[in-house]
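Why predict the complex rather than its parts? Because the way molecules touch one another can change local conformation, and only a joint prediction can capture that. The input here totals 109 residues.
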Amino acid sequence: MSGDDRRRRIYATIRRIPPGRVATYGQIARLAGLPGQARLVGYALAALDADSDVPWHRVVNARGAISLPPKGHPALRQRARLEAEGVVFTGDRVSRARFGWNPRRTTSR
DNA sequence: TTCGTGACGTGCA
DNA sequence: GTGCACGCCACGA
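Output of the joint prediction:
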């Protein structure tokens, strides 16, 4: 499998994240068939355009926080989009227990 | 070609 | 709860 295929799988997995939910890089990597390679997910997102159809804003790190610089425009945009979908930020973090996406129970909650 | 860096995760102290 | 070390892969210099 080539690197491009991995990126496509990553994007496809991210598209499955329902609105109002967030998934971690490691979770995306695992669902994409790339366990332990969360770094590739981050790199794939870095190469992604802001106007892409991939809901990149629903991807957060294991801490439930945005991995981008908090003061940066992308981070603010991501946070604003998540809040618009109903996601509540506790400080600079998101409660993964409440808003974390569970692929086995696609239905919310 | 090797080396360093990066939207990360897990394990352990 | 936090901080550090190691691992993983892709990409540019």
